[in-house]
Sequence to fold (393 residues):
Amino acid sequence: MSEDLDLNKIREKITKLDQQLLELFAQRRSLTLSVAKSKAHQIRPVRDQQREQELLIRLINQGKVLGLDAHYVTSVYQTIIEDSVLNQQAYLQTLANPNIQVPTVSVAFLGNKGSYSYLASHRYFSRRAAKINEYGCQSFKEIMQQVESGHVDYGMLPIENTSSGSINEVYDALQHTNLSIVGEITQPIEHCLLTAVNTQLSKIKTIYAHGQPFTQCSNFLDKQKNIRIEYCDSTADAMAQAYELQDPTVAVIGSEEGGHLYKLHALEKSIANQAENHSRFILVARKPIDVAEQIPAKTALILATGQKAGALVDCLIILKAKGINMCKLESRPIQGRPWEEMFYIDVEANLKSAVLQEAINEITSITNFIKILGCYPIEHISPTSVPSSAINA
Fold:
């Protein structure tokens, strides 16, 4: 009994410390917003990676004195820095686009609650809106129609995955829409085998999932014997099906987080082919946005060069000559014009910058068609690097 009492007291102390830590995290976040307000007037970049590195080295050294592992300190503070940068960016964007900041937004996404698109939507708007009105759709086309018609403010579309590659259906749809890309977010994809009831892997006879998760988990599935594959329109539909059946022979591929919304539990975790599996989503709206000068930006465009030797290379040389980094190049066939390609290009530059405007003008003069799909803040925050000597000292 005395051991139980001692354990309870220890847990009470941990609970109090956790509360104090949360309060300190909140105070720190509030101060970083004050930093953002200062940068808004001085037009200074959101990130100062030299200062971030100096901060991490100082904290690592202070942590060592307290008996804290350098990798632990680095991991914690890289997360804090990422949160700080994203919050500062969100604040600066509210200043750059005062007319579109509202407490409630409506978002269309693939599937229903629990889908990866659902999770990406909530994660994206957690910093930007107090409430989300959700509109689950059964296809990418329906998502875009909902936004184009004005029924919803935004559409969340998966564009590429680190395991299965580009999502061609979305790229093709971007050829024929007037919507603008206004944001992006990278969502970790943590595939699990989920079930509605307690069971064993050897008893599973049917697995429900969207086509993308099946592709991304092919190595795991190839090892399973006598299992029937059932394709669903979305991960959320697959999870809903498993919940309704309550069958020990039925499983679904989805995220553990999404599964909790359907009272599913993970029978097998981390079943994707790649341990690091992420999907990049783009957010589309009826009107483009302005990106604050302090924020790193991407501009997406599509162009057609015709069947001229070296035409695409000429366009890329222009970008190189201007010092503009191209971070994505994708080709897709032009419908109705055999053997001709449309090229999708993402560059790391603000559309308002003089250098990108010059590059676009030069590219326009040597192409048959060019269209700006949107300019938006870069959402992926690369972790600040720390010299190995600081960690291993």
